[in-house]
From TrEMBL, chain A:
Protein name per the record: Glutamine transport system permease protein GlnP
InterPro entries linked: AA_ABC_transptr_permease_3TM, ArtM/GltK/GlnP/TcyL/YhdX-like, MetI-like, MetI-like_sf
Location in the cell: Cell inner membrane; Cell membrane
Function (record text): Part of the binding-protein-dependent transport system for glutamine; probably responsible for the translocation of the substrate across the membrane.
Domain of life: Bacteria
One function term, GO molecular function aspect: transmembrane transporter activity
Encoding gene (name): glnP_1
Database matches in SUPFAM superfamilies: MetI-like (SSF161098)
Pfam families, sorted: BPD_transp_1
Keyword presence, Nucleotide-binding: no
Residue span(s) of domain ABC transmembrane type-1: 50-256
Automatic annotation (TrEMBL), chain B:
Keywords carried by this UniProt record: Signal
Any single Gene Ontology cellular-component annotation: membrane
Name of the protein this chain belongs to: Glutamine-binding periplasmic protein
Similarity field: Belongs to the bacterial solute-binding protein 3 family.
Species: Granulosicoccus antarcticus IMCC3135
Superkingdom: Bacteria
TM segment ranges: none
Domain Ionotropic glutamate receptor C-terminal: 68-295
Any one GO molecular-function label of the UniProt entry: ligand-gated monoatomic ion channel activity
Amino acid sequence: MTQHKQQDDPSDSDFPWWLVVTLLIGAWLGYRIVSDDLYTEVFGILVKGIGVTTFVTVTAFTLASALGLLLAAAVLSPWLVVRQCARFYIEIMRGIPMLVLLFYIAFVAAPGLVTLANALFGQWMDAPLRTRDFSLMWRAIAALTLGYSAFIAEVFRAGILSVGRGQSEAALSLGLTPFSRFRYVIFPQAFRTILPPLGNDFIAMIKDSALVSVLGVADITQLGKIYAAGSFRFMETYNIVAYIYLLVTIVLSLLLRRLESRLRQSQSQIDPGS
Amino acid sequence: MNKVSLILSWLSLRSTSVSLPQRFLQPHFSHPAGQQGLSKRVLGASLIALGLPMSLQADALPDLKGREVVVVTENAYPPLQFVDPKTGEAIGWEYDAMNELAKRLNFTLVIENSSWDAMIPAISEAQFDIGMTGITIREDRKEKVDFSAPYMRSEMFMLVRADEDRFANAEEFAALEDGLVGAQAGTTPFYTAVYEVLDGDEQNPRIKLFETFGASVQALRSNDVDLVLTDGTAGNGYVNANPESFKLVGDAMGSEDFGFIFPKGSDLLAPINAGIASLKEDGTLDQLNTTWFLDYELGR
């Protein structure tokens, strides 16, 4: 069994100066929000977008993770056709900018699918489907899901491959079914490798969710765009927009680091000698 | 980002078929520099609802029998439609006009929001019934959507830094050899700058191109360029919000007409046009111009 000792992350034991600086900037902006009427007003309007941004991100990330896991399994499958199809999908999706993908899904794929569905199943439906039945928000979620599933599939693939072949063989010798092998032996070990890049993708997606504002979805960015258009106060508005995104991503970032280090500790408890 | 810049960014995508603005269709208003009260008068004058040849009595208007009409807008083009920074409510000239149309034509108004990028595609696939967002009536867009009769005219003004004293009109700017103008490629302000201000050379190095309208205004503020051409509404908003940084100078230039957009072949086009004619006829549009361009203080 080849279990490498995991190297300690030197930035783990550093005093988090970056956090101190971030908090100072945050405190200054927080002070402005409380003391300056204009900032108070902008903040009050933009926080309403947090709900939409969170909903879009969490929904799309959950769906993308599920799809990504399936894709990773497909890429590692024993069948050539399945492998090639998954690889084709991943390379295509990974290579198209998210903004372009959003426009494709919203204005090419969605109307196309509706036309196709009507042509195929129209005779069994009371009324033909209309494109307007699919809101721009769900088209945006679909685009984020499809785009990120490709990245997440690669993360899962790398994680699964990082588990030594011996683990799989040992599980096989215990007579476990392929699903049980994956569920109880491979995946729990792969998860440690997967977690940091997966967290990275999640934070990237929070930021990329700002792109859904091009479809008019009322997320933080779109509300900021509209506020700035009405008030002609661009600097103040985008200061607050950036502040809110940082608030969300840094809190998540800290949670992820804590989870990571906890997993590392439990790992060293399992293999004290290694 | 304001709606003008979004319109302009759309124009830049369609730059192959941009036609020059109609020139000087409106009487000119001289505009003494730096006086805000007067700049508002010019602004009001810059947006003049157009008359229609036919004349309709209000009681002869079509009756839509309460049917639901979904109108989409972005709320990012003050004072046509925008979110009031103080209350968070969506208000503006176009909301008032559309509510009045709903009353006169007896339809149920449903408002939806979308962004400018999404609007023309969404209307052309009939996802919404009407788009209202200060959309310039243009031949190339008529391939995708139907336009209502024009309900408003907008004109270009010169936006400069508040301390600018080297020029006060287009001729003086053209004579100023190191004067730079900021614009987006292929947009109405770009062509106005080339053909009405400068020498007609689209490669003129005195034109600096920017990605968005907001970016060109920031470049003006930071002294990278000396002039930005803008719709009177947006220009006045910038001046009101930053009176220490900007002012408007010179006469109105190239003009554009605004219309509502519909999916191709929409049966709402004729009733709405009849409604616009009746709003024009009894002076409702003039009243809206007064309310939103003269009385309402933008950016305050």
